[in-house]
Amino acid sequence: MSNIFKGLLAGLAATLVLSALMVMKTMMGVMPELDLPKMIASMMGSADTPMLGWAVHFMIGIVGYGLAMALLNDRLPGASPTVHGVIIGIVGWLLMMVMVMPIAGAGLFGMNMGLMAPMMTLVLHIVFGAVLGWVYGKLLSNTSGAALGHA
């Protein structure tokens, strides 16, 4: 299995975890205005089509972050794929805060929604990145173990 495919699988796993957390957050009534798939759909001119936002959310998580993990894992400082995933998650959060949030009308760092928006999205990106890196690392170690006859 190629490292790119492992990255895509890790991106899928991390996006599933993140999506579950986002749905639970909304179901608990915590910052319902922070609905990223809805924001994405609105930015694309389809505010009435939240499924489009979810599809783009999954594409970003799987393809964008999955490829970043596969391509950057060996280039980032340290030896832990989990730490590398967290670094990638934090960089993604920063890009979201200075590019996506202002475009979506939420202001720089989403401050139009209050201080909780950047804090919550940072925590979610750290969790996302940790899952991304951990799964990627497990996929790397499982393949190397299988190659050595240790699977």
How helical, in percent, are the residues? over 70%
Helical/strand content category: mainly alpha
What is the H-and-E element order?
HHHHH
In the predicted model, the low-confidence regions spanning at least 5 consecutive residues are: 147-151
Shape: globular
Biggest sheet features: none
Q: Give me the number of helical elements.
A: 5
Rg from C-alpha positions?
16 Å
N-to-C CA distance: 14 Å
Total number of beta strands: 0
How many structural domains?
1
Average pLDDT level: 92
* Percent of residues in beta strands: under 5%
Write a brief structural summary.
The protein has 151 residues and is mainly α. The chain has helices spanning 3-27, 36-43, 50-72, 81-103, 116-147. The chain has one domain (3-142).
Descriptive account of the structure:
This protein is mainly α. It has one domain. It has 5 helices and no strands.
Task: Detail the topology: elements first, then pairings.
Layout: H1 3-27, H2 36-43, H3 50-72, H4 81-103, H5 116-147
Helix pairs in contact: 1-3, 1-5, 2-3, 3-4, 4-5
Main features:
single chain, 151 residues, mainly alpha, 74% helix
